[in-house]
Amino acid sequence: QVQLVESGGGLVQAGGSLRLSCAASGRTFSSYSMGWFRQAPGKEREFVARISWTGSSTYYADSVKGRFTISRDNAKNTMYLQLNSLKPEDTAVYYCNAVTGVQAMFDHWGQGTQVTVSS
Q: What angle is formed at CA 95 by the lines to CA 93 and CA 97, rounded to 5 degrees?
């Protein structure tokens, strides 16, 4: 099973940028398509972006398309999410997980990383 640790969140003004990281333990990281999810206060967790196991294919939720970029480095067992042109509505705890389509594969989640965008 893959253990996941998210980092890189913070407080940023609207229009700013952040880069999130998802560090995975386990030798099977490169076997999985991976994705980012987020959960805002009082809302359900939602899909944000996914990347294929090779990194050659990506897919984004409409709400972040053109602003966020997902990438991965299998040699480092790490996935990234570059967040640009941030909006207050992007405020949430961001999580990573293996994915099937836009659904999380694992039931267990990491602690997430908080992104707060001020207006």
A: 165
* 34-39/10-13 β-pairing: unpaired
pLDDT in tens for each of the 119 residues of the chain?
A: 678 999 999 999 999 999 999 999 876 788 899 999 999 999 999 999 999 999 999 999 999 999 999 999 999 999 999 999 999 999 999 999 999 999 999 998 999 999 999 99
Q: Which residues contact 75 (CB under 8 A, 6 or more apart)?
A: none
| 3-state SS track over the chain | CCEEEEECCEEEECCCCEEEEEEEECCCHHHCCEEEEEECCCCCCEEEEEECCCCCCEEECCCCCCCEEEEEEHHHCEEEEEECCCCHHHCEEEEEEEEECCEECCCCCCCCEEEEEEC
Residue 79: what residue type? M
